[in-house]
Amino acid sequence: MMKTRLSLLLLGCFSMPLNADVLWQDFSVSYLNGSNYRVDGPDKQVITFEHVAGTSWGDSFFFLDHLRTDHGNSENYSEWSPRISFGKLSEKTLQYGVIKDVLFTSTLEMSSQRTNYLYGVATDLAIPGFNYVNLNFYRRNNDGVADNWQLTTTWALPFTLGKQQFLFDGFMDWSSATEDQSASMNMTSQLKWALHPLFNWKSKLYVGVEYVYWQNKYGLADRPQFRTDESNINLLIKGHF
Predict the structure, then answer these.
(1) Is the C or the N end of the chain the one with fewer CB within 10 Å?
(2) How confident is the model over 121-125, as a mean pLDDT?
(3) Distance between CA atoms of 149 and 136, rounded to whole angstroms?
(4) Residue 4: pLDDT band with limits 50, 70, 90
(5) What pLDDT score does 43 carry?
(6) Phi first, then psi: what are they for 114, rounded to 5°?
(7) Higher pLDDT residue, 107 or 222?
(8) Confidence class for position 5, pLDDT limits 50, 70, 90
(9) Of 190-194, 198-202, 212-216, 219-223, which range is least confident?
C-alpha cells in the first residue's frame, strides 16, 4: 500500500513538469568489459544506454544496463532519476556559499527481481574545476527487504595533460543497515581519455577504465567462502550522440 501511494505521489509530482521545456540533453552508449566479480561473476560485459536532460523544471537522468556473463547469462537493470528544482520553480536564486540549488530528488530502480522507489532532498554544489557535484539524500522504499536510507554523490572533473583532454567522473552510494541487510557502499569512477578532439569530431568519444569498489554488494554481508566485497576494473569505450 505504501508503495502504491508513493507511486501516485511521484506520478503527480512529474505529470505537470514533464510538459515543460527541455533546455539541453545528451544520449550516450558505453561498452564495458571486466572481471573479478564475486557476487555476479566472475567475468562480465555491460552495455549501458544513458540519457540526461536539463529542463525548465529541473533535470532527469536515465540509464539501462544490459549485463552478460561469459556463461551466457544476461539481465537488465535500469534507473530513472528525475529531480525538481526549487530554484527554477520559484524563479529565485537559492545559491548560498557552495550550494547552487536545492531540489526534490527521486529514483526508480527497476530489475527483473524487484522495483525500488527512492525520494528525498538534493543539493547541487559549485566546486571550482568540476562540471558538477551533486548530493542526494534518499529514503529508500525497498521491494522485499526493509526500507532504509541512502546518500548518493555524483561528480565530473575535466582536466588536461598537455594537449590531451580527460574526464574523471562517477558516483558513490552509501545505504544504511537494517535488520535484514548490511550497510553498503558502492563507489564507481571512470577515467576517460577524449578521442574526439584528435579527429575534430563533433560527437564525443572516450576510451578509458572504470574502477568499482563495492562493500557488502546489494546489502549482503560476507559469509564464510562467500565474499560480497568487490574491487574490479573494467575497460570501457563511450560515445555521445
Answers:
(1) N
(2) 97
(3) 11
(4) low
(5) 82
(6) -160, 165
(7) 107
(8) very low
(9) 219-223
- Of the candidates 241, 173, 171, which has an alpha carbon nearest to the alpha carbon of residue 203? 241
Closest to 57 measured CA to CA, from 107, 19, 11 = 19
Provide the 10 A C-beta neighbour count for residue 164: 12
Query: Which pTM value belongs to this model?
Result: 0.86
Tens digit of each residue's pLDDT (9 = 90 or more) over 208-231: 999 999 988 877 765 555 557 888
- Here the cell at position 208 is 578509458
- Residue found under cell 505529470: 15
| DSSP alpha helix (H) spans, 49-200 | 86-90, 196-199
**Contact 239/205 with Cβ under 8 angstroms?**
yes
Using alpha carbons, select from 130, 129, 121, 181 the residue that is nearest to residue 152. Answer: 121
Residue type, 100: K
User: Are the CB atoms for 199 and 219 separated by under 8 Å?
Assistant: no
Task: HSE, CB side, 13 Å, CA atoms: give it for residue 66.
Answer: 6
Which residue, chain included where needed, has cell 577524449?
A: 194
Q: What are phi and psi of 224, to 5 degrees?
A: -55, 130
199 near 237, Cβ under 8 Å? no
212 near 234, Cβ under 8 Å? Answer: yes
Nearest to 196 by CA among 145, 143, 239, 141: 239
